[in-house]
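Researcher: Here's my situation. A collaborator sent me these components and asked whether they could plausibly form a single complex. I don't have experimental data yet, so a predicted model of the whole assembly would be a useful starting point for our discussion.
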Amino acid sequence: MSHESQIKVNFDNEPYRNEEFVVNYKAPFNAEPRPERLVQSFITPIEHFYVRNHAPVPVINPDTYMLKIDGLVENPVLLSLNDIKTKFEKITITAHLQCAGNRRTMMSEHKKVKGVGWGIASLSNGTWSGCRLRDVLMYARAMPFESGAHHACFWGLDFGCPEDNGKSYGSSITMEKALDPTGDVLLVYEMNGQTLPRDHGFPLRVVAPGIIGARSVKWLDKITVSSTESESFFQRRDYKIFHNGIDWDNVEKNWDNHPSLQELSVQSAICVPAPNSRLFLPFTLYGYATAGGGRKIERVDISLDGGQTWDLAELMGENKGPCSRYWAWTLFRYTIKSIDSKVAKKINIVCRAWDSASNTQPKFVGDIWNLRGVMNNCWHNVEVTVDPLCSKF
Ligand SMILES: Nc1nc2c(c(=O)[nH]1)N[C@H]1C(S)=C(S)[C@@H](COP(=O)(O)O)O[C@H]1N2
Ligand SMILES: [Mo]
């Protein structure tokens, strides 16, 4: 019997979910929207926002809820939800969250990887309101960096994670990110202007923009300031990227010498049309592009011939965060007006994005293949048939 089946977990109190979701795993619940939903609006509506849970959704009474802050702080505190809402300035940011496992299925098709299979839609864009983690850490009088306060470790209240012997989910970020006045790490109680929904961490979650979704801990129980990063399985034994020589027979000795993933890289994908569609011209395709670390998406290139020649996609704007930080995604579109064929023709449409540090996406999935199937950001392509005889004009 695997260790996973020995953990007793109860999924009787799960919230209602949109039936349209593509469910990649039922319990714990893991689901992504249909890709075309992502490009219908700049802000992803809550009912379509991807959900990535590692355990049952905890039932939390907001009236008795208390956030604990301890570790390398001079003033360990307990804060009620009301304290969080009234003692600290309310901030709203627009940011996308993206799972490091986004596009894992494609990586697994190249060579099998382990992990929940995700298509191209394990990311979403939302608005988040709450207080700054920085303000709370300063209230607790976090010790200076020189005295070893290097990591802000978060624990959730979602006990029952099978990978970690039934412990709750945990993760950490650096104190540098946590305390950065321009880092915008928030303790969030509202999403898209509504009370934070249960699936997304009610009553309080971390949103650490610009870094992998795994660090934005939901149902936040405790923040520990520490000299070492989180002891959690999800910090030490998961969410790391290896070269392709590391496999299950030699991974154990390699976990500790590889860094935990933090900042996202540059990513893009075409959401419309779906693969194998038949297109009527003119046809406008739509997709998303994202960058890590608050960098800006400068450009998205589109190729209609599998990546030999390129043209510019039109960026649909609205991607600016406060100051010059770009936490949100950038949606893009491109209109195919004609093709050089009088008969129906199969074409391979490719996209790739560039960020403000001139990072772009690798061409081949094989070049970035890794055991856990994380950070797949290779060129995205869709093969479709264009039929000039079915033109609208
Ligand atoms: N407590 C807790 N926090 C968590 C998780 C979890 O399972 N439990 N999943 C993480 C992962 S891997 C991701 S990608 C994001 C997903 O956030 P969402 O479900 O709100 O989209 O939450 C992160 N925070
Ligand atoms: Mo994730």
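Model: Some features of this prediction you could bring to your collaborator: The two ends are 63 Å apart (CA to CA). The pocket of MTE (ligand 1) is lined by residues 49-54, 97, 99, 156, 158, 169, 200, 213-214, 216-219 (CB under 6 Å).
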